[in-house]
Structure formats: C-alpha cells, structure tokens
Amino acid sequence: MLDRLSLRLRIxxxxxxxxxxxxxxxxxxxxYLGRTERALPIDDLVLMGGACIGVLLALxxxxxxxxxxxxxxxxxxICNHLKAAAHAKAEGDIKSGxxxxxxxxxxxxxxxxxxxxxxxxxxxxxIAAATAESEQQKQYxxxxxxxxxxxxxxxxxxxxxxxxxxxxxxxxxxxxxxGLGRSFFGVVTEQSFRHxxxxxxxxxxxxxxxxxxxxxxxxxxxxxxxxxxxLKGRVSLTLGRDGGEANExxxxxxxxxxxxxxxxxAGIWRDRMLHDVTSDMRQRIANLAMVGDLLTMEGEIDAExxxxxxATFEEDGRALAERLxxxxxxSSDLLSSAWPMTQVFAKTLLELIRERRSEGxxxxxxxxxxxxxxxxxxxxxxxxxxxxxxxxxxxARVEQFELRITGRERRADLxxxxxxxxxxxxxxxxxLDERLDDSLGAMTGTDVLNRHKTEIWCEPAGDGRSRLxxxxxxxxxxxxxxxxxxxxxxxxxxxxxxxFARIERDSLAETPLRDLTYVVFDTETTGLEPSKxxxxxxxxxxxxVNGRMLRGEIFDSLIHxxxxxxxxxxxxxxxxxxxxxxxxxxxxxxxxxxRFVGDAVLVAHNAAFDMKFLTxxxxxxxxxxxxxxxDTVLLAAAVFGADESLTLDALAERFAIKIAAEERxxxxxxxxxxxxxxxxxxxxxxxxxxATLREAIEISEKQAAIRRAQGKY
Amino acid sequence: MPKQSILVVDDExxxxxYLKRLLGNVGFSVRxxxxxxxxxxxxxxxxxxxxxxxxxxxxRDGYEICETIKKNPARAxxxxxxxxxxxxxxxxxxxxxLGADAYxxxxxxxxxxRDTVRGLLDGEPAAExxx
Lengths: 713, 131
Known about the structure:
The complex is a heterodimer. Chain A is α+β, with helices and mostly antiparallel strands. Chain A is built from 20 helices and 17 strands.
C-alpha cells in the first residue's frame, strides 16, 4: 500500500515540482521586478518571462525524460515481454530493475509470466503423458493386429477402409490397392459382403440381433477381386451414436477373414474323390456278386467261365483294395485336418520332451535332431514320448537315453534309444492304452498315434542297444507363408477412425481441402522435353488421407523408357540404363499407378510437367488421368507471391521440412517433400480464406494466368 | 524229404480254410490256429517252417507272436509272413522291424501268397527236423 502510494506520490511530486518550480520562477521574477519603483522596463520583463519559460521548459523536459526512462520504456518492455510470453511461449524472465520506479508492476508481471509458464508446462506434461499413453495403446493395437493370423479390416458405411492389418494385405495378396479411405470393394468381390450387410442391417432394424446367437455377426464367403483366392470370414456390424442421436445406429463394420482357397480346393477334391471311389466300388462289388452267383449256380461251369471268374476276382479284388487305400487316405486327411497340427522344428520338439519330465525321475536325455520341420500336435507328442521315456526307464532299468530325430523323405523318425533290452510288444501296447495327461482329454497313446496316422515299435539298434521308433510327417516349412508372402513394409498409419464420420459430399469441388484424398506424385525422366521423345524412368506417389500423409501407402516404380538415358539426366536423378534394364515398360507401370491413384486429387510440384508425361502415355497405356490436379508451385505463389523462390528446396527450407540428401531428386523423396509442403500450404490457404478444392483451383488458375502473362510458365 | 510245414494263424475260419486248401494244394503240410495263444502253444509243441500271421488276431496279436518267435534263438529260423488289412507303409515297416520276413496286405491274390511262401522256404534250408 505504502509502495503503491509512494508510486502515486512520486508521480504527484513530479507534477507538483513542475507546478511549484514554475510558480517559484514566476514569483522570483515578480519579486525581482518589484524591486524598482520605476516603470518596468521592457527588457526586464522579457528577461524574466524568458527565465520563467526556461525554468518551466527545463522542468518539463527533465520530467519527460524521467517519465520516458522510468515509465514509458519499462511499460513497452513489459508489453513485449508479455506478448512474447503469450504468443511465442518465451520462458525468459523479465530483466530485473526494468520497472523499478513502477512499484508493484514488475513483480506482478513476473508473477503472471511465471504462472503462465508453469501452467503451460503442466499442460504440456499432461499432453505429453496422454500422447505417450495413446501412442503406447496404438503400439499394442498395432502389435496385436500384426500378430493375428486373421486378416482384419474395418470399414465405414461407404465401405471405405478405416483400419487394416498386415495379415489382411497378405491374405488379399495386395500391396497398393488397399489403403485408408479406399473402397474395400476394390480388393474383394462385393456381392457377398453386401448380402451379409443387408442381412445384418435387417436383423438390427427388427431387433432380432438381441436374441440371435450370432448377435450382429454373420459368416461370409467371398473372393478377392482377382478371383484367385477364396476368403472365409465374419462380418460384424459396428454401432455408434452421433452427437444428437438418441439411439445407436450402424456406423460401419468389421471383417475378420482368412484364406480358405487351399482348404476349399482340398474339400472339393475330397468330395469328388469320395464320389468317384464309392461309385467305382459299387460297380466292382456288383461284378464280384455276379461271379459269386455264377460259381454257386447249379450245374458245372466250364474252363472258360472259370477263367473269367478268376480274372474278375483278381482284377476287382485288387481294384477294391486300391480304392480302399484311397478312402483310407481321405479319411486320414479328414482326421488330421480336424485335429490341430502345427509345424514344429525338430530340435524344439526334442527340447520340449526333455524339459517335460512329468514324473521327476533322474533321467538323462541327450538330444540330437536334424534341421527338419515336423507336422504334428506337438503337445500330444511331447506327452506321449515323455510317458514312454518314464515307462522304459523303469522297464529296462536305464537312466541314460538318447533322443534323436532323423529326417527322411517326407518323414522323420523320432528314436528313443538306450543301452539294453527292447521293450516287449505287450508292454508297449499296455503303455499306449494308458490315458495321457488330463489336459489332453481322455486321450491315450494309441489315440495320439492314430491321429498322426503313425505307429510306434521297438527294435534292436545294434551293439546291445534298443530303440523305440516313432515316424512323424515332415513338412517343407513354408517360409513365404510364415513371413507373409511378400513381406511388406510395416505401415506406420494403419487406421484412421475419423473416417467413420467422413461426410459424403455431392460435389468434389466444394469439399474442404483437408477432407480430400490426394496422391502426391513425382516423375523422373530422360529429359525435359516429352514432345521430343523424352520418357519417364521413374514414378512415385504417396497418399494423403484426412490431412495425414500415409508413408505406408506409397507407389514407387522404375520404368523402362525404351531408350537410353542421357548421362546428364542420370547425374540429376541417379537412374542409369542398367537400373531400368529389367523394369516394366510404361504401358505396364502406368495402369498400376492409375489403380493406385483411384479417384484421388493429383498433386505435384510443377504439375504441368509431370502431367504432360502422364497424358502423353495414357492412351498407349489404356488408362486416363482425368483427376483434378493441384500444383504446389501455383499454390505457393498464391500464398507467398510470385516473386519469392518457389523451388521445392526453397519451400522445404521455408517450412523446415528435412529431405535426406540421398532422397532428394528421387521420385519418392520428392513426392514426400511435396506432400509435406502441400499440407503446410493447406494450412496457409485456409487461413487466407481458400478452403475448398474449387477455390484452390481458381487461385491456381489465376496464378497460372499471371505466370503465362509474364512468360514464366 | 518231409513236407515243409506251415502254421496259419487267423481268427477268420474262412481264411483258415482257404489258406489250408491253397497251400495244401501246392504241397505244404498246413495246420491252423484261431488265436495267438493257440498259435504259441502250437509252435512250442511242434515248430513249423513258416507261420502265416494275421496281425489283428485275438489273444496275443500278430506282432507279439512274431516277437515271441524271433526272440527265441531256437525258433528264430521260423519264417514269418504277416497278413494284415493295415496297408500303410509305416504299418508294413513296423511288421518288418519286429522281425517279419514278409508282409502281405489284404486282399492278396493266391499267386502272391504262394510265391512269397515258396520264395521264403526255397531260399532257406528247411527247419531242422526235431530230434
């Protein structure tokens, strides 16, 4: 209070000083003039008046200087400090003593900025924590989805993909054709899905889903667009509620699917075989029955009849036996396909057996295994061999065993060997009739053998050794399948649930720039003059969906130009004749790029150049690029003015976009840089009132006209 | 030279009859047993030159009878032909691993069996007569 009063008092004193000083100067002047009795000489009056004015001026100037130094300057400094703190998030403290004559102002400002900083830090910390948490959850989700054996795709009601996992790409055998915001029906046949969705929506509308055993899910069998693969899966309707809605409505659907092509083919083959074999058997049994009738007929049969009967018996008997073998094979396949068999590495299986040790006996087991993969129910085999190990140890009174897996053609023998007598058939059969571990159900060793279509026996192994031999089926480990066929790069952006709420617009032109799907692309060429025979040697593109550049959804392909690449061009983009020697020609690459683009808006830096190459070749390639096109050069000119440098390098520098040196001047590197530049330009265009595609095209055309007029373009 | 003797072990009376007639017709002395225990007793009483064993015979099964024969050094020279409806390669391998000299899968032809038996007995000297 005292300080505050003293600030006010101080200001009062300044003004009091001017008043008192001015008054004192006037009084002093009047006293001086009053000393004489004669009429006041003009000179004295002027002198005194001047002195008074001088004193007043001096006082005013001195007061102004003091005010400027101690009030105006500190207030300005404080204003700048507050502005910086408010907008630029400056953290620095106000310089001490800046406003030492302004009482509480300096500590008050210091308090405000400190509080602001602290609040800001707190907010940042909270945001960082929330971001880290959501990032972690995203990672969990990504890991789970990646490791799933089924393909997962989530779509909105317009069948646009909102989420997909790696397995979905592998099962659908697609790379660039599926992506966020793309139609799911671009990769699968739509009829069965539409049918399933109609059923589900009917079920939902009539409320039957509440009591339905499958709820809002239904089985679907479909095929990939190419028709090469059959898919089996479940479609589930996803419900959601918009802000104003009272009830949940279908927002989209989840498809979980697997590839059943092989399974289905095997099933069809099996059915056909069963049909053929059984009808053939019926015929042969009829033959045998007829011969039986002939032989048991009254009366003698002659030598010819006897020979015919013998031939029929022999041929049909043999044929029946052969058909039975085939039936046996079919039934075995059915059995093993119903039983969960997995691929297990021989050494792993042996280690699992050695570690099982269910009865805790002092048994030493040496293991050795060939590098083969076995097709078996490993848990059941481990339990069976462990049981045999324990029983044999007691039976033969041995503690030292050797467990070995030897690979042979399409099978491997699992041998359990020891020094001593063989196990008798009777003992082995008794052990095999015992129930194994309870976790395997009421399964006996014989059941396990039957399921594996195998046998076990004991035989001498030479040098007084014996062995139990258990043959198992081997498989050529399908590494391509295990790794998912063509291993695709992990995709950083694999979901975008904002697409659930994407509003369908009638007019592309009136769609906000941020809501559009783009393909930002770039080409590398043999030269700058397509009309004089220059050709593309590389084309790359990246998708932008919902304002995000999807680095996982890229197109990048070399093109065989059908002519030599001039050295001067190779020096720019680094692509040589040797590199494109085995590349596809433009007539193959362009249709692929066309599919990748779909109905997205095309974006390129200096788009006219790239579009010229595209349109010159489109007829030959049998596709046409009628998509709307935006040019980052023209958009940047609209934002920054045509006098600024608008090269990709200059724009990237302006927007602090880093391009690795080795990526610069590659079609993909430049596409990525152009994509990031374009996203920044959208922000600036929106701020300048350019919000829709139509407006962006209009300002581009204006810029193009200006440049044409200036002869620059 | 005495007739070579064959023991047929099968629980199907029809098969026993058929094999006895078939092998008897080509000059062997054939006797039969209807289950595993009877077979072992018969072998103990008078070892044959060859035993035709149905794997799935009752009592002791074919594998066990084969094992019993081959484990006894005095009887190990007796030839064993296994007959079985089990026709997978692994089942045949199991039979051979347990000491069978031949393995025929059902159904088989007369010629096949006759050739197999002759092959086994002609290639080897007949079992030494007792005493």
